[in-house]
Design a protein that fits this description.
Distance between the termini: 11 Å
Bound molecules: cytidine-5'-monophosphate
CATH class: Alpha Beta
Structural class: alpha/beta
Length: about 220
Amino acid sequence: MIVTIDGPASSGKTTVAKLLAKELGFLVLESGKFYRLFTYLLLKSEKEWRALLTDEERLKAFWKRILPELKIKVKKEGTAVYFRGELLEKELRLPEVEEAVSIVAKVEAVRKLVNSLLRELSKDKKLVAEGRDMGSVVFPEATLKIFLTADEKVRAERRAKDEGRPFEKVAENIKKRDKIDSTRKTAPLTIPEGAIVIDTTSLSPEEVLKVVIKELHKRGL
Ligand code: C5P
């Protein structure tokens, strides 16, 4: 059983996914972390990373080299990503990763590689999966699909506060990523068919959770 939560940057997906997973005893699949991981390792290992993005065979070879060194734990508290035994957290939030991640994530070959790992990790699990294309592409069979939105300024304020970063910088990055994510050819950010849309601008995470639980109850779950 899978509940998907999609939406633009900083709309509250991860926070709500974690609250919901705790309530239901489900695991949290944070799909954005996989694109951040791909981007982080690509930037670290390839000076000419942009050139690699147009070469599917080299991208595949890169990912094949990386995979044996990765360990992913899909847990109730979130998704933990380890590379060569080291937990990656702040690395995935580096400004250079935030700048490049949407450019990397719009490449079809990258999405194929990430999606096959996501599907493998999701087998036989009860999941809350959050991202941009969880309900539309990766888990179209999901039991419940949620799409979160929020005022752009409020989203930037939330992230700037959470990460202690300057509002202007965060706002600019969110705008750029949303534009690339929603206009790309492959799996653009979109409201999945049948999704419940929740505007979180003036709602607390607990209030959003209540709406989601109500929707689950409506479906007899
Ligand atoms: O959710 P998060 O902000 O961590 O995602 C980082 C980036 O990864 C997004 O801006 C988007 O470019 C990409 N992403 C994606 N598809 C997903 C999840 C994230 O393209 N399902």
